[in-house]
Amino acid sequence: MMDWDEGKVVFIDSSLEEEEQEQEQEMEENMRGSNAKTISAAQSNGNPNAKGKLGCLCRFPESRVRRLMRAEAPGDGFRATKDAVFLINKATERFLQVLSGDACVCSLRDRKRCIGYKHLSSVVCKKKRYEFLSDFVPKKIKAKEALEARASTETGS
């Protein structure tokens, strides 16, 4: 299979793509199973108010998530229910798990043992679902190249 990469033809092994998709599916299935077990265990502890205990199942502090939500909300009268804060917290966890999993796959392809900025930026550039992060996690370029690009845009404008 061929792909265009910055004007060059790149041959991609389709078996790698299939393997990557299988790994993503396995990871998603594992996550669904572990989250469901944790939540059901918390609700079946015999406590009638188990729903309030779900906040302890989050990795990020509820108060910090609520504060971030308030900071981004337009206007002063912003209010969010505990359920909304919990769901945003879990969605954030899930997003970071998937992003770090994709970066881990990228680092394993490079035969590295840890994830680096290069792997994160590579995932953000290659996968369309992370396109919105391209401004925050750009590919690293050398200072000389950046200065040349800036000079060419200034003279062109």
UniProtKB/TrEMBL annotation:
Nucleus listed as a keyword: yes
Major localization listed first in the record, in broad terms: nucleus
Domain spans labelled Transcription factor CBF/NF-Y/archaeal histone: 59-124
Subcellular location: Nucleus
Gene Ontology MF terms in the entry: protein heterodimerization activity; transcription cis-regulatory region binding
Region entry Disordered, spans: 14-48
Biased composition (Polar residues): 32-48
Keywords: Nucleus
Ranges of compositional bias, category Acidic residues: 15-28
GO cellular component: nucleus
GO biological process, one term: regulation of DNA-templated transcription
PANTHER family: DNA POLYMERASE II SUBUNIT B3-1 (PTHR10252:SF93), HISTONE-LIKE TRANSCRIPTION FACTOR CCAAT-RELATED (PTHR10252)
Protein name from the UniProt record: Transcription factor CBF/NF-Y/archaeal histone domain-containing protein
